[in-house]
Specification:
The chain is an alpha+beta fold and about 150 residues long. It folds into 2 domains: about 50 residues; about 70 residues, Alpha-Beta Plaits. The chain contains 4 helices and 4 strands; from the N terminus they run αβαββαβα. Strands 2-3-1-4 form a 4-stranded antiparallel sheet, with helices on one face. The longest helix has 30 residues.
């Protein structure tokens, strides 16, 4: 009887502790800072006046953005008329790249500018500070001493 109770307690602890350890490791691995390519990129968006874009404008925009050396990667959404490009964080001024893009292509477009009073962290549509995921991630980052997002 006594060994049966001990086994029951041991298995109960295993069933409770194992998922908690897995959860902790998962949240830590997802929220810790990493030096992967792209983690220090700055994204900028250009909004074209016309949408959807015609095929000639698509080809011209892609070829012009690909010739700008500071641009590391780009994505053109022809249906919505937006071009998002990535550059190394801190290595340029977005207005300079936009001006070069406009001079080379003579497009009818404007550079996306976040609303006034909205900081760079809060203007990101991916980062919702009220979400449960963000809160749990912040707790684990605080525990690990790795919180750079606040």
């Amino acid at each position: 009887m006594r060994t049966r109770v001990k086994k029951l307690i041991a298995w109960s602890l295993v069933l409770i502790v194992t998922p908690l350890v897995i959860l902790f490791l998962h949240v830590y691995s997802v929220t810790r800072s990493s030096e992967k390519p792209g983690t220090n990129w700055h994204l900028t968006r250009i909004e074209f006046q016309e949408s959807p874009l015609d095929s000639l404008t698509i080809l011209k925009a892609q070829s012009v953005i690909d010739t700008i050396p500071e641009v590391m990667d780009s994505y053109l959404n022809s249906e919505k008329g937006t071009l998002v490009y990535a550059t190394a964080k801190g290595s340029y001024k977005s207005q300079e790249v936009f001006d070069r893009f406009m001079r080379a292509g003579h497009f009818e477009a404007s550079q996306y500018v976040p609303e006034k009073g909205v900081g760079p962290v809060t203007s990101c549509p991916v980062l919702d500070k009220k979400s449960l995921t963000y809160r749990i991630g912040s707790i684990f980052q605080d525990l690990m001493g790795d919180n750079k997002t606040k």
